[in-house]
Design goal:
Layout: E1 11-17, E2 20-26, E3 35-38, E4 49-52, H1 60-89
Antiparallel strand pairs: 1-2, 3-4
C-alpha cells in the first residue's frame, strides 16, 4: 500500500439539457467538505460555480488569535514560576 493523496484529484458534474450534455470538471477538491454546484441550465458549463462550504482560509485569523492567547498565557505561567523559584532561592 503506497502513499495516498489527501484530496480528490478530479470532480466532474454533467447535466443533460435539450439533448446535449454539459460537463464541468474541477481539480483538486478537499475531501470531507460540503460542495455546492451552482449550474446554470445552459450549454456553457464554464459558467458553473463550485462553492466549498469548508474554507480553511476563513479560519486563519481565529487560529492565529487562539495561538497568540495560548502562548501569552503559557509565557505568563513560566514567568510566574521563574519568579517564584527565584524568590525561594533568595
Amino acid at each position: 500500500m503506497g502513499r495516498s493523496n489527501n484530496f480528490i484529484e478530479e470532480f466532474s458534474i454533467a447535466v443533460y439539457s435539450g439533448g446535449k450534455r454539459s460537463m464541468r470538471t474541477w481539480t483538486p477538491v478537499i475531501p470531507k467538505s460540503i460542495l455546492f454546484v451552482i449550474a446554470e441550465m445552459t450549454e456553457n458549463a464554464e459558467n458553473w460555480n463550485l462553492e466549498l462550504l469548508l474554507n480553511p482560509t476563513d479560519k486563519v485569523p481565529l487560529v492565529l488569535i487562539a495561538d497568540g492567547v495560548f502562548l501569552l498565557a503559557l509565557g505568563l505561567v513560566i514567568i510566574v514560576f521563574h519568579l517564584y523559584e527565584k524568590a525561594e532561592d533568595d
